[in-house]
Amino acid sequence: MTASTHPLSWFEASARQRLAALTDPGSFAEIVGPEQREISPHLALFDLPEQFDDGMIIGRAKLGGTPVLVAAQEGRFMGGAFGEVHGAKLTGLLRAATALKRDVLILFDTGGVRLQEANAGELAIAEIMRALVETRIAGGRVIGLVGGRAGCYGGGGLIAGCCSTLIISEQGRISVSGPEVIETNRGVEEFDSRDRAFVWRSMGGKHRYLIGGADIFVDDEAGAFRQAALTALDRPARLDLAVLGAEQQRLKRRLQRFATARDGIEVWSRLGIAVPADIPGLGTRDFLRTTTDRREMADDAR
Question: In total, how many domains does the chain have?
Fold first, then answer.
């Protein structure tokens, strides 16, 4: 039998497969690996399965020859949700990045915070965001990659919003509240979580890219994510009051422009896209060509 020549799907891959495809061959060295069995102290109380890496893989590697620190969430374990150990590993990695003056890549695949570890998970989100901002203030880049099965929801969405560059595929989704959460709290009339097309028009990669919520749009291929990550390493890493002020103004303009829109298609129409209903069906090349110069001020604040 011969090895498959099909490109590795980022959406279908495991966290370890994504890391192997993203980083230079043989360069990844794991920190606090499964052999150390740093598992959640809470899950056994709920008779839930544990995993020796707690769904968070961290380590050092090289990308295009450049030393970097990397973290990948395993969306197949508890939906990649944040708990005490899961979050502490990412916090520690970001603090190491500040001390070592290294750039960081975070491979998001998360539904948010574990309900079983709610307080510890929420605290972890706050600690991660603080450590991330400190890394950026110190001059480091924090690059987020979104395209996994679980998406990037809850606290993961907040962390992603703090990154210096976000890379996303069509399959990726970013939101603070997930579809089911919105439906539960606001009703199916507000958000029908079973309408998958509507979910992707509201939270999916194409929509997030068009409204400036992500910086680079790629195919669902590990090679495309790697190339985009290499590009992101050359992007500015500046974070100061001027950058924050520009971002605040951008969000204000976005709210003024789209607050009354009820669907992604209406948003895309206001962006000046000629046939917005065609956007979901476009391949990556046609999508990028069609939307050239139609995005919502994506790059001015980063």
Answer: 1
- Please tell me whether residue 201 adopts helix, strand or coil conformation: helix
- Residue 149 belongs to domain spanning: 15-238
Please enumerate in sequence order all residues whose Cβ is within 8 A of that of 250, keeping only pairs 6 or more positions apart, or say none. Answer: 212, 296, 297, 300, 301
**In the prediction, which pLDDT does 35 show?**
78
130/142 Cα distance (integer angstroms) = 13
pTM over 0.85: yes
260 located within any domain = no
Those residues whose C-beta lies under 8 Å from the C-beta of residue 213, and which sit 6 or more positions away, are 161, 166, 174, 207
Residue 166 CA: distances (Å) to CA of 3, 188, 217, 218: 32, 30, 9, 11
* Contact (Cβ atoms closer than 8 angstroms) between residue 232 and residue 256: no
pLDDT digits (tens, 9 = 90+) for 287-298: 999 998 888 864
Would you place residue 116 in the very low, low, confident or very high pLDDT band (cuts 50, 70, 90)?
confident
pLDDT at residue 1 in the model: 39
CA 64 to chain centre: 21
Flag whether 269 is in a domain.
Answer: no
- Gap between the Cα atoms of 139 and 227, Å rounded: 22
Structure tokens at 163: 């990154």
